[in-house]
Specification:
By secondary structure, the chain is an all-alpha fold. The chain has one domain. 67% of the residues lie in helices and 0% in strands. It has eight helices and no strands. Helix 2 packs antiparallel against helix 5 and helix 2 runs antiparallel to helix 7.
Length: 174
Amino acid sequence: MSKETDSMSPADSGGLSSQCGGGEEVPVPFGWLVLVLRGTAVLLLLAFVGAALPENWMKVVYEWGGLGPWPGGTLLVYLARAVSILYGFYGLLALYLSFDVRRYLPLIRFLAIVSFPFAPVMFAVIWAAGLPMVWAVSEPTSIVVISALWYVASRPARLTNAAEPGAAPDPART
């Protein structure tokens, strides 16, 4: 990491108070990535609310969404809650990763990359299930947007050297 990023104050890095493993402030190149991860976390943590909805509220949302009459049943309720909990846990993961982006940078990039093919798979699953087109477009699109944000935010020009403690700045990247 360069002396320039060592001497940056929290205000210079966008005021983010995330810390790296040793307690020092997040270097400037990581500020955007921290923000993206935490934004993703907030969005996905909202899924826990869906997991806690009473079944009669699920029925109202289901029918309001134009999915037809509520078929009910324990399997549908289980699957709705399980998917919501899974999304919520992915939000917890994003939040956790945001507190030490230097350490988890390879994992963050891996998750961003493997999420790209997940979007067309989700489109196919939604399409085959006969859900409305707005659903078939919005969920895969949100997956692509979040994946792209994670990928782009983890690859700024100075981030490669900042990810390696003690690395000298690469003049070709500045």
